[in-house]
Amino acid sequence: MSHKPFKAVIPAAGLGTRFLPATKAMPKEMLPVVDKPAIQYVVEEAVEAGIEDVLIILGRNKNNIANHFDAMPELEQKLREKGDTDKLAKVERASDLADVHMVRQGEPKGLGHAVLRAQAHVGDHPFAVLLGDDLIDERDPLLPQMLAEYDKRGAAIVALMEVDPEHIHLYGVAEVEVTDTDGVVKVTGLVEKPNKEDAPSNLAIIGRYVLGPDVFEVLEHTQPGKGGEIQLTDALQELAADPQKGVFGVVFRGRRYDTGDKLDYIKAIVQLASDRDDLGPDLRPWLKDFAAGL
């Protein structure tokens, strides 16, 4: 398909209550995963997929996110004077990654409302939505395939992952049909956070979506759903029911880290640090010794 370039939207207005008191003054998206804030991994993922225009949806007390992606001339000059080129490059990378914009959500009224706040910036471009606390390992790229499927089908694309039925109530869940492409399904229905007995499958929506600007028209009349919030899942359900539009899912089988959950956040740090050349050789033997002593 021929269309305007993709943009990226990263909702980051949540309160992060699961990490209190750490997130009382620090946005959960700024919590470090090894030595970078979680949200930087997400912006880097969008850039690696070829997206240069990134909009971050902020909430109250989230100014640290904007500061992180701004240049810091004083710090950069001090590092330059010290000859610390390695740290200088890391600091400059955050501000040079992409054309990063910010808009405030105001009151957190759900993911659908956050996406709707991006309408003025996105305009008539297709766009990717990347949740700010959901990390996809760079060795298992997902977004490029989703963008390609959007180009092929001209329909909304969601990322799906097989989930243990005991945890299915934490996700939006898809009812699906097979397609002629391996690993791609047609979504025929969506249920937000069902009980495991009511779930139509074990395929859960994870924090990646590729959408056309037509989703804004749907979100404008989407009523508050579960939790009293405007759910993106409800808007996608309407698109899935429209034979002229439709929704498709890319089934992801790679490595994903949910940094919005305390245990998964700790696991993400350990896994990513273990795989690094600068940390892994010392960390892996220590982990074995530590585990053996439990």
Averaged pLDDT:
90
The main sheet orders its strands as 5-4-1-6-11-8-12-10-9
Number of DSSP strands? 13
CATH-defined architecture: Alpha-Beta Complex
Distance between the amino and carboxyl termini? 56 Å
Unreliable parts: none
Q: Which structural class matches the secondary elements?
A: alpha/beta
> What level of helicity do the residues show?
25-40%
Which sheet architecture does the biggest sheet show?
9 strands, mixed
CATH superfamily: Spore Coat Polysaccharide Biosynthesis Protein SpsA, Chain A
Q: Give me the CATH fold name.
A: Spore Coat Polysaccharide Biosynthesis Protein SpsA, Chain A
Morphology call: globular
Percentage of β-strand residues: 15-25%
Secondary-structure element series: EEEHEHHHEHHEEHEEEEHHEEHH
* Count of alpha and pi helical runs: 11
* Radius of gyration, CA atoms, in whole angstroms: 20 Å
CATH class: Alpha Beta
In summary, what is this structure?
The protein is 35% helix and 23% strand. The protein has eleven helices and 13 strands.
Characterization of this structure:
With about 290 residues, the chain is an alpha/beta fold. The protein has a single domain, classed as Alpha-Beta Complex (Spore Coat Polysaccharide Biosynthesis Protein SpsA, Chain A). The chain has eleven helices and 13 strands. It has helices at about 40-50, 65-70, 75-80, 85-95, 110-115, 120, 145-155, 215-220, 230-240, 260-275, 280-290; strands at about 5-10, 30-35, 35, 55-60, 100-105, 125-130, 135, 155-160, 170-180, 185-190, 205-210, 245-250, 255-260. A nine-stranded mixed sheet has the order 5-4-1-6-11-8-12-10-9. Helix 3 packs antiparallel against helix 4 (about 85-95). It is globular, with a radius of gyration of 20 Å.
